Recover the amino acids of this structure.
């Protein structure tokens, strides 16, 4: 659930809210065809990740009571290399996905 057994919010609540915000923002930008180039797709996915961190990390600090610097480390820095790798792989896969979907407007 979204709360702990003691009734407090879970440390992941900020990230769960952030996923919705990031998906909404990125979806709207994709409707405006931001993802139609590799560069655009990369920047759009990077933006989504940044939004998740910008919301998730401060909420993590507040909910857990950890110092903000500690929340930055445990809530973002340890995940950034993996998130960047996922963004790069997804960016490289976009042209293939467009071909499979029959959309040839991408790179």
């Amino acid at each position: 659930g979204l709360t702990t057994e003691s009734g407090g919010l879970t440390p992941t609540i900020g990230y769960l809210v952030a996923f919705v915000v990031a998906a909404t923002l990125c979806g709207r930008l994709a409707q405006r065809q931001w993802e139609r180039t590799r560069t655009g797709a990369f920047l759009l996915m990077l933006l989504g990740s940044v939004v998740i961190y910008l919301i998730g990390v401060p909420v993590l600090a507040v909910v857990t009571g950890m110092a903000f610097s500690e929340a930055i480390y445990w809530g973002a820095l340890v995940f950034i290399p993996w998130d960047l790798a996922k963004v790069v792989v997804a960016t490289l896969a976009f042209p293939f996905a467009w071909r499979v979907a029959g959309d040839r407007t991408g790179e």
Notes: DSSP finds four helices and no strands in the chain. Helices lie at 13-31, 38-64, 68-77, 80-101.
